[in-house]
Automatic annotation (TrEMBL):
<dbReference type="InterPro" id="IPR036388">
    <property type="entry name" value="WH-like_DNA-bd_sf"/>
</dbReference>
<dbReference type="InterPro" id="IPR005119">
    <property type="entry name" value="LysR_subst-bd"/>
</dbReference>
<dbReference type="GO" id="GO:0003700">
    <property type="term" value="F:DNA-binding transcription factor activity"/>
</dbReference>
<keyword id="KW-0804">Transcription</keyword>
<dbReference type="InterPro" id="IPR036390">
    <property type="entry name" value="WH_DNA-bd_sf"/>
</dbReference>
<keyword id="KW-0238">DNA-binding</keyword>
<dbReference type="Pfam" id="PF00126">
    <property type="entry name" value="HTH_1"/>
</dbReference>
<comment type="similarity">
    <text>Belongs to the LysR transcriptional regulatory family.</text>
</comment>
<keyword id="KW-0805">Transcription regulation</keyword>
<feature type="domain" description="HTH lysR-type">
    <location>
        <begin position="5"/>
        <end position="62"/>
    </location>
</feature>
<dbReference type="Pfam" id="PF03466">
    <property type="entry name" value="LysR_substrate"/>
</dbReference>
<dbReference type="GO" id="GO:0000976">
    <property type="term" value="F:transcription cis-regulatory region binding"/>
</dbReference>
<protein>
    <submittedName>
        <fullName>LysR family transcriptional regulator</fullName>
    </submittedName>
</protein>
<dbReference type="InterPro" id="IPR000847">
    <property type="entry name" value="LysR_HTH_N"/>
</dbReference>
Length: 302
């Protein structure tokens, strides 16, 4: 009886190619290195293809092996699409582990959830709201499928789909600073500054910008939570950079005011980030839906 090519063999080939060694592929697939080797031997027999270039060190694919890998990737994507159809037919929920920061949760997350439920009625969403760096670490460890964060992190195996930019301005309690004239950022740095720290994607990007401008902050109160910074600003404890449109109602009510500056703060770009080292049609589509929903200008959009 001729051997048959299995999806498990193709998945194993995929991970060997992406991770570079049998050992890493075995770890990712939660199996032994000997099991991985056996699957590749079976795949070579079934396909009659010498998959690896044995004149090279390591798990280097041959030319025919590269062709087989391209087919394997397509078949794995098709398998995911079949799983989507099966889930919608049986009503069995598929799980989406979605990570977002505070700002997304406070603005367009409700709208995103609504659109996802329209497209995938059987989809079960498991949300995580946390700091950008924590979400990125969870994505690295395969504890989340997709995160929506400022574009402050990069790794080769992750794909980032641009979503929208957030316009930030300096804000303070009314009367704390003279607003009859524009100030330099250097002038503002003489006041207590309410800043996000190293766990915040926005904080990473904007603090780097301050450093690039040669701004030395004299006194800083640091919190990775945007909500906490907002409360400190309303309390009159300092000057902070905050999203202009999302918190405009606090300016309209007189609780905060915008401080005009000679140098505009750079916009903070947000991305939908997910792993590229495993094809998954659902995650690709969710990222595209997120791009169509992303709007940081209004609170709790539905």
């Amino acid at each position: 009886m001729n051997s048959q090519i299995t999806l498990k063999q193709l998945e194993t080939l995929y991970w060997i190619a992406r991770l570079g060694t049998f050992e890493r592929a075995a770890s990712r697939l939660a199996t032994s290195q000997s099991a991985v080797s056996k699957r590749m031997q079976e795949l070579e027999r079934a396909s009659a293809i010498e998959i690896f270039d044995r004149s090279q060190r390591g798990a280097r694919l041959s030319a025919k092996g590269e062709e087989l890998l391209a087919i394997a990737e397509k078949m794995l994507v098709l398998h995911d699409q079949i799983a989507d159809v099966r889930a919608s037919e049986t009503g069995r929920p598929r799980l989406l582990r979605l990570g977002v920061t505070e700002l997304t949760a406070m603005t367009w997350l409700p709208r995103l959830v609504g659109v996802l439920r329209e497209h995938y009625p059987a989809l079960k969403i498991s949300p995580a709201v946390d700091m950008s760096r924590t979400l990125f670490s969870a994505l690295e460890d395969d504890h989340l499928d997709l995160i929506i964060v400022p574009s402050a992190f990069r790794m080769p195996e992750f794909f980032s789909l641009p979503l929208a930019e957030v316009e930030n301005v300096w804000m303070a309690k009314k009367g704390l600073i003279d607003t009859s004239r524009p100030h330099s950022v250097r002038d503002l740095a003489e006041y207590p500054m309410l800043m996000q720290g190293s766990q915040s994607g926005s904080g990473i990007l904007l603090n780097k910008w301050l450093q690039s401008q040669g701004i030395a902050v004299q006194e800083a109160l640091t919190s990775d939570s945007m909500t906490a910074l907002l409360g400190l600003a309303v309390a009159g404890l300092g000057v902070s950079y905050l999203p202009k449109h999302c918190f405009s109602h606090l300016v309209d009510s007189g609780q905060l005011e915008i401080i005009r500056t000679e140098e505009s703060l750079p916009p903070v770009p947000y991305v939908a980030m997910y792993r590229e080292d495993r094809p998954h049609s659902l995650i690709h589509h969710v990222a595209e839906i997120a791009a169509s929903c992303a709007d940081f200008e209004c609170s709790f959009q539905s």
